[in-house]
Amino acid sequence: MLFCACSDNNRNPTFPFERTVLDVTIVKRCADGTFAPGANCYLLRWQHPIEKKDLESFYVWLDTNIVNDSTQKISQTQMDQALKIIPYNDRGDGDSLDLTNLISEYLERDSVHIAIWAKYSSNDQGVVQHLYAHFGDDVPPAIVSFRDSASANAIWIDWIRPVDQRDFYFPDLMDGPIAGYNVTIKAETTPSTEDIRYISLYTSVAENPISSINFRRFQIFNKDGREVKLVSVSNNDPRVLRFAIIDGKGFANDNMLENEWRMVITGLRPEHTYNVTMVAYDSSGNSSAEESRNIRTTDAIPPTIANEFWSYTDPEDGLYSLDSNRLILFWPRSLDPLPNGGYREVRGYSIEQLNNGVWQPIPPRISAIKTDLNRFRLENGAMAEDPSGEFVNDTLRWILPGETITLRIRAIDSSGHYSVAWIETINVSRGELGKTNCPENFSPVCMERSEDNICNKVFCMEKLQHAEGNNFKRNILYIEAKKACEALSFNLCTEEEWNAACNSGGSDYGIIEEKDENGIFSPNEFLFQYCGVGTADPLSANNVDKRNKICASQDGIRDLPGHLQEWVISIGEDGKEVPLLKGTSHAVFQGASRTELAQCRNRFTPTRIRPRYTTETVYLYKSGSRIDTLLTKDTLRTIFDSLTPSFFKDTLLVYNLKSLSAAQLGIDYVDQKEYRRRGGDAWLNVLWQGLNYEPKEKWQVLILGTESINASNFFLDPTVGFRCCTGNFSILSP
């Protein structure tokens, strides 16, 4: 392959791309360096062209009156009308221009065009670079993705308030107010003379009813690209109803219940089809894409439903027993009464489990509707398969020993009519380790098995990472994690205990490796969806209620891979205690395989922050604070109490470590003397491996000693937590 380029000057060729400004961006930042979503401060930044010889200045134009958005070359007339000219003067690799005052007259728009061009004293010139500065909110809200259900004369529409990006320059701010929703309902069944203009409806948000007055007469519309108003609408077509639902709130990240909307439409006809369409508007008038769906009402008579389970039980405690984390349930089959008498088989059953206050299908990846279930008969205390039997059954997967589960079962007929709900709470046997008395929120784990696979030693491990209230403890030093467990008369889990939990069931990931309905287990998908591996989602990782219980071992130990890495105690070759990280987290490791990282027995040192870097210290003191090292003997601060400010002559450079997506990963420290000795930023760039380090502050400290300490002693990271363990005793202990 041959690449060619042409130049007017064959003796000293230069090309347009060499004389064009590079990496032109706009950031929302004020002159004092601060930036906030509500501020109208903008900064234009660019890198100097490759060719700097004869470079004179940079020309900037706003709007398209002088330089339009497709201009490549600049005339003298356009140069004379430039809004701003910035001399080059050999200032480093890049430049910036404060746009705050220059764009003040354009703020009523959604955006304004900006052109920038490098001027050279020679004839050869580069091309113009174009971009847009965005003002206010010109980003539409997310689509309204709704769920539906129906009865003979009613439709239920459930949706979650969509997120809305409020500011182009702050993509993480997704809680902009939703003004409301335009809704259209149309009768689709033909032939039909149905008039739906006067059907009844009401809405609720977070289970609080909202008045439906005027819903039939108004519609939200976008008048001028900015202002959202309601206008009266006429329904000339009796088969169509248009109305608006008013919201006014943004997405509530701290309470999902506040985002739950429901609309109930009644007065419809049985077994008719209705099209429902919804569009969301944000407070600036931007509208989402349209979501539309056909929904059919059911027949008038619901099917029957049983109200009692039959299952195999554990002989020790009489509770429902598990078969490799599977719970096999049987119940009497349901029938569907016909309008003219008689019965027919139901189409299937909806089986759901209550999880953190929400009914979820079991298992989540499969539809809640079970069809073509096998038939059984009860014979001599056991179930035998029989095509004419009176029982049907289903196998629930990912059920944990000792778990209490609440199930909801409904029969569904061929028209989609649901029976009344049968709700029952089931206590599952703890099985083999049921005699072990573990503290609350702990589960027993087998440490040692005999040759005939009988567990003879067991310990207790926290089911989830250690939490206070509803939030997991994280961003914590190793020594702090260790002391937190000891304060509760437990111990920080050891690597041996962690590996024993991993080995339960023989999984590579410390989870139950159930196959899906197609007989496939995809660890990459499973770890991302249920265990939070590499999701970059701290909200789910840090909140107890947002964790998915499916990410668990056969002993009921949850989230060994994913969400948060964990401190454990390890022993080095010299017999000394070594801080170690196990598991993976929601952080994205660039270039790393999710399934390789999540293998349960993997061991990590904090190399993601400082590869193979150690600082020479035994005691590290920071003026006015606690001791920051792990290996300290001055627990009573006898040395510190004798220090004066004049002793603090050493300096630590403190950095915020961020991922490539600007997510905060942790804090790193560098001894300023070592920083200078090893080459400054050039040395750090080798260690950073593509991650972003932002200078945070400098600490005046006192560093004593010469013994080498691993970087983990200073390792603080919001993606790292821990869990406690306790006991190592016989399986027969009371």
User: What is the gyration radius calculated from CA atoms?
Assistant: 33 Å
Helix content: under 10%
Runs in which pLDDT lies below 50 for 5 or more consecutive residues are 1-11, 607-637, 705-711
The fraction of residues assigned to DSSP E strands is 35-45%
Sheet with most strands: strand arrangement: 8-9-16-11-12
Total beta-strand segments: 45
Written description of the protein model:
There is one protein chain. This protein is mainly β and 734 residues long. The strands form 13 sheets. Strands 8-9-16-11-12 form a five-stranded antiparallel beta sheet, with no helix packed on it. Helix content is 8%, strand content 35%. Residues 1-11, 607-637 and 705-711 have low confidence and may be disordered. The chain starts with 21 loop residues before the first strand and ends with a strand. It contains nine helices and 45 strands. Strand 32 and strand 33 form a beta hairpin. The chain is flat.
What is the compact description of this entry?
With 734 residues, this protein is mainly beta. It has a five-stranded antiparallel sheet, with no helix packed on it. Strands 22, 23, 24, 28 and 29 form a five-stranded antiparallel sheet that branches. Strands 4-3-6-7 form a four-stranded antiparallel sheet, with no helix packed on it.
